[in-house]
Design goal:
This protein is α+β, with helices and mostly antiparallel strands. It is built from three helices and five strands.
């Protein structure tokens, strides 16, 4: 795979969870919502169409797998999946667990309320739950 460097903003706004076959999986540092981000490892990736056909299919598998893991780890009511990239152009996919009681429901999460940092033990616990769910999904 070609050279990969994660955008500093994406890195700073999230915790590392796991390396998947194509993407780096990260947890956003916003305790308002359990919010994952997949960042495909490759140079100069901006749009889904910048991936090869094979990598597009792999990314879809990883989106499905991480969505399932997030649902298992959080028992969420809804999953939102999106690739916007208006502020950071590096290709990244958001997978967000939603609940009717979350502060942005039923609207989009972006800009709805100020970000709340995770307590370190809460972030560690969610990351551990996600890793277990991912391991179970690939077993």
């Amino acid at each position: 795979m070609s050279s990969f460097a994660i955008n500093p903003r994406l890195e700073g706004d999230s915790y590392f969870v796991e390396d998947l076959p194509l993407s780096q999986l990260r947890l956003m540092k916003d305790a308002n919502y359990p919010w994952l981000m997949l960042v495909p490892r490759g140079a100069d990736l901006v749009e889904l169409i910048d991936l090869s056909a094979e990598d597009q299919q792999q990314l879809m598998r990883e989106i499905a797998m991480t969505s399932m893991a997030l649902r298992v780890a959080t028992d969420c009511e809804k999953l939102n999946v999106g690739a916007l990239g208006n502020q950071v152009s590096q290709l990244h996919i958001h997978v967000i667990a939603r609940f009717r009681a979350d502060p942005a429901w039923p609207g989009p999460v972006w800009g709805a309320v100020p970000s709340i940092p995770y307590e370190p033990e809460k972030a560690d616990s969610l990351i551990a739950d996600l890793r277990r769910a991912l391991a179970d999904a690939t077993a």
